[in-house]
Design a protein that fits this description.
alpha+beta; Alpha-Beta Plaits; about 260 residues; 8 strands
């Protein structure tokens, strides 16, 4: 069969170096199945507010950042030229956007898991066609390494902006997402995390993810307290035990 027209003149594509963040909303598929548009509007709000919370500069502008949203996933990207003098600033913008998305999601009651990588990647101008090793690495970090609602990063990303990361108990480096939160967010986060525990404590895998988020919440506020913050909020073991006990009682009665 002879090819005709534009198909014969397709350009040769090449990957370039990018910083990539791949994010997944945990448990969002159940909300999507309800088809009530609630998650759709929450997702749009998370995207819109996160983008507007980040200050862009002449070095990194909004048009430099690629954003692709599909289903319950968000893909962020920024191109990094060879020997790019603005590499650190560009990676920092992806980090800032990721942190803001994480926190905006929790303001709506959603937890996010993700990965940030640096490497070869291609996207077209419309951000429809995306491809590359960096994308595979970011997805691998999200699916196989993160496990819990945390943003896991390559060592090169951590080394570029070390002030944004902390090492978890299992040795994994992840984004210290709550440093992008606001002081008055902590009460809201506490309520959302406790409500999620009430709703999903019977599912062991989901409960483990929520308990990780609660542990991180308490750790972050403990650090803030140590540096003199008076607006710290904590989730106590008694509050956790009370929810788990009540849910176990309901389960026993249902039997």
């Amino acid at each position: 069969m002879t090819r005709r027209g534009a198909a014969r003149n397709l350009p040769k594509l090449n990957t370039s170096k990018y910083c990539i963040a791949y994010l997944d909303f945990l448990g969002a598929k159940e909300s999507m199945k309800k088809n009530d548009n609630k998650f759709l509007n929450h997702l749009y709000s998370v995207y819109f507010n996160a983008l507007n919370d980040v200050a862009f500069t002449n070095v990194v502008t909004q048009k430099d950042i690629g954003i692709k949203i599909f289903s319950d996933n968000i893909l962020l990207s920024v191109k990094i030229e060879d020997d790019d003098p603005n590499r650190v600033a560009k990676i920092e913008k992806i980090i800032n956007l990721t942190g803001n998305i994480y926190n905006n999601a929790l303001r709506h009651g959603y937890l996010i898991r993700g990965g940030i990588s640096e490497g070869e990647f291609y996207k077209d101008d419309s951000n429809v066609f995306v491809y590359g090793k960096a994308l595979i690495e970011a997805i691998n970090l999200e699916e196989k390494i993160a496990i819990y609602p945390r943003i896991v990063v390559q060592s090169s990303i951590k080394e570029s902006n070390p002030q944004y990361f902390h090492q978890d108990k299992d040795g994994v480096w992840c984004l210290d997402s709550f440093i992008f939160s606001r002081v008055y967010d902590q009460v809201s986060y506490k309520n959302h995390l406790l409500n999620k525990l009430k709703k999903d404590s019977k599912d062991e895998k989901v409960r483990q993810k929520i308990m990780w988020a609660i542990s991180y919440f308490n750790l972050y506020n403990s650090r803030q307290q140590q540096i003199g913050s008076v607006d710290c909020s904590f989730i106590s073991q008694d509050e956790i035990d009370d929810i788990l006990y009540q849910n176990s009682e309901v389960a026993d009665v249902a039997k």
